[in-house]
Every structure is written in structure tokens, then in C-alpha cells.
Amino acid sequence: MNLQVLPRSLSVPFCEVSQRLGLPPILTYADAVLANWKKRDPDGNLELLLTFPGGESVRGFFMVTLLVELQAVPGLKSILDVINGICDNDVAVVTKALDVVSQAIDSMKQALKLIHEYVDPSIFYGIMRIFLSGWKDNLLMPEGLVYEGVQEKPMEFSGSSATQSSILHCFDELLGVQHDGSSAAFLRRMRDYMLPSHRHFIENISSRVSLRSFVLQQADERLTHTFEQCVARLVEFRNYHINIVTRYITIPASRARQLCASKQGLAEELDMIRKAPTALEERGTGGSGIMTFLKTVRDETKDTTITQCTNGNQVLPDSSMTDIQKAASELTIE
Ligand code: HEM
């Protein structure tokens, strides 16, 4: 057996720091995105603290992800207003707060579009994914990793993935999106990779109130419409994200197979894409079986809708690559 070992000088302090933070000893989303920035100047322009091979695409990837997080902030804050509104039986307060959530999800989608401006698919596929991947459900490291001086038995941890962001977990809990089976298990496991305060916040949302029951019970037209719009926008976000995964993983994976078979293509592209381990083809950096997982989660979101088809609020698949330029002119990273 060919065990991979992290030397004692790294593994011992890494595990100690991780334990204090309440995080597993691997690069998590909290390390790579949430805490990986500082202000470059008083105007608030940001730069990364930690980077890895992949040049400007790495910076673009983390910065765009951070922008998506930033757009979510008003929506996250409004969750408390929704909960308080339900406790006070105040339909107007709940509707207003839910409208902020809905707008936040839409802004997140606009920010997500920037990924096309700043991240090169072959660099993401060929270089970056290796650094984001972990040692669980990874055929390249089937035994996991030995943390020397910590434990003799190898340990397995998932790589960094936005599934470890608390945002969509919060919105799912608020709207009552029910995840089942392996997708639910994967999402739940990803909560172990979040900061404990984020994890507790998510758990608190669902244990407080049921927004969906409140909406059904009140049968208020505006409230129902706003709830439906939130669900529709969450589906749209997930649809757009699936498009991204197609462009950044599915297409390069099939191009890699094609190039390796024919040995033709531009030398640079060939080299970049060939570097990508075939073992990671079907896996996200978090280790999920990509498309099945993402489409299941998207469909479970659709199922949350109260009226399958509300006025002008139908959930349509989003393939609007042409919107990217528009979004980029409104939101830029400096
Ligand atoms: C090149 C860009 C991206 C690619 C290729 C990508 C790929 C993936 C993959 C493969 C998964 C499945 C879980 C896993 O195993 O990792 C996933 C999950 C997820 N990603 Fe991304 N992602 C990208 C950018 C982003 C960005 C910028 C965000 C925004 C914060 C994001 C948000 C999510 C969320 C929330 C999930 C969990 C699934 C869900 O709740 O719908 N992703 N991503």
C-alpha cells in the first residue's frame, strides 16, 4: 500500500489550529474564500492572502466567489426579519423581508456570471481543481492521508467546495427545501467543513419556524408571490451554476478525452488539459458525483414551489451567456 504522509512539522500545528477553529485539517471554503482576502487600499479594493498555481484565474475564481457571498449579505440579514415577522404574525414584515432575500439571490446570480470574465476553463480544469481537491472520495488518494504525529491511521477529508458555504444552506432551510438521499447526506456532511457559528446559524433557522407553512396558512397573494419568486430565483441560480459546471468541467473533460485519443490540438491547450487527472473527471472538488448531485438539488428546490406555475413567475432554464457582458459592466473586481 502506497500511503501518502503529511510530515509531522506540518500536520501537528495544522491539526491544532484547525481544532481551535472547529474546522477539519484541510483547505476549506472558509480558508480559501471567506477569510482569504485583505484590503489593498483604503478604497476597499481586495487582494488574496493565499493563492496557488493558476495565475489570474485563481484570483478571479476566489474573488468572484467572494462577490457572490457579498451579494448574499442583505438576504442573510433579512432571515431574522422573516423569523420575527412570523413570530409576530405580521404578513407585511415577512413579505418585505422575503423580497430582500429574493433580490439578494438574483444579485448572487449576476455576480456568479463574472466567473466567465475572470476564470479560464482549461486553467480551472487542468490546474486549479487539483489544489482544491481533497482526500476523500478521490481515486487519486483512495486511502486518504496520514497526518504524521497525529494519528497512525490515514484520515479522509473532502476538498474545498462552495457546498461548504452557508448561504444556500440558509436559504434552503428558510424556504423549506427538502433534500433527500445521497444529496442530503452530502450537503449535511459539508456542514462539518463550515465554521461552527455558521453551522449553528443554519440549524437555528429551521428549528425556529416554518415559513412555507406560514405562507400556506396566510394565503396572502403578495406573500405567496414573493415566496414563489424566492424559490424561482434559487432555481435560476442553481441552473446557472449547472451551466458553469458544464463549461468548466464537463466540456474540458470530454475535450481531454478527445485530445488524448487523437493527440491533436493546440500544444498549450493539450498540455494544460492533459495535466488534469482523469480520476477527477466525474468528481467535484468536494467529491460529489457532479451532475447527478447538482441536478437533484436543483429539482428538489423546484419541488418547494407552492403553485407549480405562478403568474409570470415560471422557472425557466437559464442559458444566458449573453448576459455576462451586461453583468460584468455592473459589477467588476479591481
Ligand atoms: C469554475 C466555477 C465553478 C465550478 C466548476 C463549480 C463546480 C461545482 C461542483 C462540481 C459542485 C458539486 C459539489 C462538489 O463536489 O464540489 C459545486 C457545488 C456548489 N457550488 Fe460551485 N462551482 C463553481 C463556482 C461556484 C461559485 C462562484 C459559487 C458561488 C458561491 C458556487 C456555488 C456552489 C454551491 C452553493 C454548491 C452546492 C450545490 C447547491 O447548493 O446547489 N460555485 N460547484
Description:
The protein contains 14 helices and four strands. The chain is mostly helical. The model is unreliable at 309-334 (pLDDT under 50). The chain has helices at residues 8-21, 29-34, 56-87, 91-112, 115-118, 121-132, 166-175, 181-190, 196-208, 211-218, 221-262, 267-275, 290-302, 323-330, and strands at residues 4-6, 37-39, 46-48, 145-147. The chain has a two-stranded parallel sheet with strand order 1-4. The protein has a two-stranded antiparallel sheet with strand order 2-3. The longest helix has 42 residues, at 221-262. Protoporphyrin IX containing FE binds next to helix 3, helix 11 and helix 13.
Short summary of the structure?
Helix 6 (121-132) packs parallel to helix 12.
List keywords for this structure.
mainly alpha; Methane Monooxygenase Hydroxylase, Chain G, domain 1; 61% helix; two-stranded parallel ribbon; binds protoporphyrin IX containing FE; two-stranded antiparallel ribbon; 4% strand; 334 residues; disordered C terminus; 14 helices
CATH class: Mainly Alpha
The main sheet comes to: 2 strands, parallel
Question: How widely separated are the two ends?
Answer: 48 Å
- Topology pattern, helix = H, strand = E: EHHEEHHHHEHHHHHHHH
Low-confidence stretches: 309-334
Structural class, by secondary structure, is mainly alpha
CATH topology: Methane Monooxygenase Hydroxylase, Chain G, domain 1
Keywords: Dioxygenase, Heme, Immunity, Iron, Metal-binding, Oxidoreductase, Tryptophan catabolism
Family: Belongs to the indoleamine 2,3-dioxygenase family.
Pfam family, one: IDO
Binding site for heme b: 241
